[in-house]
Amino acid sequence: MKQEESDPVPLSQNIRQVYLWLTMKRESTDWLTRFSKALMAFTGSVLGLGLVSLMHELLYGTTDLPLIIAAFGATAVVLYGYPESPIAQPKNLFTGSLLSAFVGVVSYHAMHGFPIWFVGMIAISTALFLMTLTSTLHPPGGAIAFIAVAGPPEIHQLGLLYLIYPIGTGIFLMYLVALLMNRLTPKDQRPSP
Q1: pTM above the 0.90 mark?
Q2: Helix crossing, 141-150 with 65-81: angle to 10°?
Q3: Looking at the DSSP assignment, which residues form a beta bridge with residue 114?
Q4: Do the Cβ atoms of 52 and 42 come closer than 8 Å?
Q5: Rounded to whole angstroms, how far apart are CA atoms 4 and 188?
Q6: What distance lies between CA 88 and its chain's CA centroid?
Q7: N- or C-end of the chain: fewer Cβ atoms within 10 A?
Q8: Within its chain, how far is the Cα of 11 from the centroid?
Q9: pLDDT value at 173 more than 80
Q10: Domain segments of the chain: what residues?
């Protein structure tokens, strides 16, 4: 059987496609606007994480600070980097975080003795299920649930107080910084009040 060869696309058509791609309209955000937005995200993140870290260090020293920063670092990315997103809004921020913390604490205590990886998997998946069910998805909630399970004894000893501190207090401080950033950039909603 003879294989048919397809005609190659003429060079002029390829050049035209490249020209159209190069000249098509893109997002009208210029470099200065992107830089300004990035600078505001950076500033919000430094202030928000700085407040949470300072409060934690004053209360507990440097114990577990890396874990706390990991969970709130993800919140900072959402809250200050993409403030107009539904997952950065107060309903999702507060409810998603607190629901995840609750699930993590309950999972740890209810499944004590099971392997940490298993309890963590159940806690994260349950938090995801409940956040999705209640339309309060906040991706850092997965880390919040996992820290309640896999964190050190100091975290486990907090029990349900984990919802108040560090989670409730931390997200409240980060939200206040987001509102401050909103005042500084009135055209952006960082997040909507």
Answers
A1: no
A2: 170
A3: 112
A4: no
A5: 57
A6: 8
A7: N
A8: 47
A9: yes
A10: 32-184
